[in-house]
Amino acid sequence: xxxxxxxxxxDIQAFKSIFDNIKDLIFLxxxxxxxxxxxxxxxxxxxxxxxxxxxxxxRMEDVLPKDRADIxxxxxxxxxxxxxxxxxxxxxxxxxxxFFGETSLSPILTKDGTCKYVLAIVRDxxxxxxxxxxxxxxxxxxxxxxxxxxxxxxxxxxxxxxRRINHRATEITGYDKEDLIGKPFxxxxxxxxxxxxxTHFQRALQGxxxxxxxxxxxxxxxxxxxxxxxxxxxxxxxxxxVFGIAKDITTQKEMEKILRENEEKYRLISENAFDIxxxxxxxxxxxxxxxxxxxxxGYSVEEYVGKSYLKYVHPEDVSILRKRLTDIMNGEKxxxxxxxxxxxxxxxxWLEITTTPVLENGEVxxxxxxxxxxxxxxxxxxxLKKAAFYDSLSKLPNRRIFHKQLQAAINEAAxxxxxxxxxxxxxxxxxxxxxTYGHVTGDAVIVxxxxxxxxxxxxxxxxxxxxxxEIAILLPNIESQQIAEEIAKRIIQxxxxxxxxxxxxxxxxxxxxxxxYPDHTLDMNTLIKYADKALYxxxxxxxxxxxxxxxxx
Length: 553
Fold this sequence. Notes:
This protein is α+β, with helices and mostly antiparallel strands.
């Protein structure tokens, strides 16, 4: 890797440090006659592919199976020849199973335009591929469940025309699929049940779950008594049609019970294999829980079954679940609920829970719940909320929060007859630091600026990053200008100590411009403008100086 370092520059160690902390697999390869030699492999690649450090310096065909090495060498040669990035997907067996990766090969050009090195970045998409395969299997299982269901299962469009029927529907009615697909269902209903059946269908189009009995005509003209369920098909909030499940209730009643229970439990388990499935008694005790409980919450099935469904729920969320159980027992439909549940290791996870009652003779016999881990989604939402108000680098409030809090401070000061100070701060020769030491060091300097300023203001003060190396300080509710000056002096004093980063000693400095409400203006924007003007004058004086706005200057 030494020759590579000499060619691409001294900052490669910084990039190596970054690459070693990236989850993607990263390889740096050097052209070696008709092959390529491993120059660098990051920690993720060594771990996931179970490679040792001895791979460094070896040629590709000495590490990989010959057929795979031949394929990859051709792709690497293409990158060297065209000097263009190529992307492809590959999969291969490892000791840990099949690995799927999205690979990007990028040429690294030297100053003279030659290319001897290729940077390979491989994103592990094994989990995604597994999920896609699981989805396909679930879809096949659902289709199999419909087609081989003991009841007639059919799908109606929004106009009441048959779109799909299973084989059992043809057995019950005597009609072939070709006789029904595309036809409206109304003509097959006996006259005395026509209006009622149409009303239930229209209610299903309004999003309601309907159950009723009706008589239809068999193809031979004989009436058939059916127990029918109409289920609205809602995808992403949009009604797409209606599912119908029809049972010939002249046949064995016991079969209805067995088929309904087996169908419901099998569908839930097969379609939600990665979620926690629970069966809860009306008294609130867990009768069954899927094995996924251990993967998500850390408890074994034996530890969980037989306990109250509220046992591991966050105390603040217990009342929510209790109300849901009461509502369901009273026959009400309940929405999806988000609650916190205790992991076996002692921390809480956010779960999204859907509850469905299992009815027998019109009474709730048990409850089936599906719980999905949404902790990452909750964290992401929190990050997105924070990103709207905080600077991602320094973690300081941004301009939006600063303006909001400044206006609030002015309003409060007007009532309490107090002062508000605004300071605008610029780093001393920040561009020179950036140009000399690079953007990574420049970013570290900005973070350090925020820390030092934050450490020398009051708890109620606001320190915000406005842009670049410009930081704004809000001092609300102060009695005099002297208080603001004392804080400015403390801040300046804190910048007299050098900053050490990655073995480099950096001498920092700042300039501060200050304006006060109501001394200089009553308007928020003008107050910021005056502080900016004072900052400009402070920078003219020199390093580590502050200047208070003066209308006479």
